[in-house]
Amino acid sequence: MKNIVVLTGAGISAESGLKTFRDSDGLWEGYNIEDVATPEAWQRNPKLVQQFYNERRKSVLEAEPNEGHTALARLQRNYNVQIITQNIDDLHERAGSKNVLHLHGIITRAQSDVDPDLTYPINGWELVTSDVCEYGKPLRPHVVWFGEAVPNMQRAVSCCARADIFAVIGTSLQVYPAAGLTQYVRTEALKYIVDVRIPYTGNIPFRKIEQPATIGVSLMIEELLAGL
């Protein structure tokens, strides 16, 4: 069974009503990134940061996986599927995907302020400032903030190097280090990119499907199953 590695970004979650990255005005749901998504912001105003991620978590729990998510889950019937996502929601898992690697963390978990490897599931949508880890230290959202290392990056590189088929869905390939994963995919691997507006992708020979994920993923799967 062939290995297919899928890199997903904000576009696929946006079709479920979620905004998972900054808008063109530099704001994320009306907040300055520097005020809510950096280690410095957490040190400066943890209450604001918790409030921001509580709001995002509530939105995630209210959202539902869309056809793009469920189509990728169905792909597991025919391929060994590894999803690498830049998104912090759990929509891939709720759609039924079994192998999901979160590059930027997942908002439905909390992590210790002193040990990022110490994580806990969050019951409901709200994390409060009095919630602490087993060391008695505050719990923060289990997300990778701007200025922090991406701990799952090496695992993602290894996955990409094993891909027989590589698909990019709902991402502009502008956010690093995730965008750099394309360089680890073997030259002979079949490559797809699915997005509403496909940016210039250099010399990489992508098969381009310029459609939203809710349409484009199914079109890609039809091609794959037809043996193209």
Q: Could you explain how this protein is built, in words?
A:
This protein has 228 residues and is α/β, with parallel strands linked by helices. It has a single domain, classed as TPP-binding domain (Rossmann fold). 29% of the residues lie in helices and 21% in strands. The chain has 8 helices and 11 strands. The chain has helices at 10-14, 33-36, 39-44, 46-62, 67-74, 91-95, 153-161, 213-225, and strands spanning 3-8, 27-28, 31-32, 80-85, 100-102, 105-112, 119-121, 139-143, 165-169, 190-194, 207-209. The protein has a 6-stranded parallel sheet with strand order 5-4-1-9-10-11, sandwiched between helices. A 3-stranded antiparallel sheet has the order 7-6-8.
Shape: elongated
Q: Biggest β-sheet: count, sense, barrel? A: 6 strands, parallel
Strand order of the largest sheet: 5-4-1-9-10-11
- The total beta strand count reads 11
Name of the CATH class:
Alpha Beta
CATH superfamily: TPP-binding domain
> In the CATH classification, which architecture applies?
3-Layer(aba) Sandwich
Q: What's the mean pLDDT score?
A: 91
- Helix and strand content put the structural class at alpha/beta
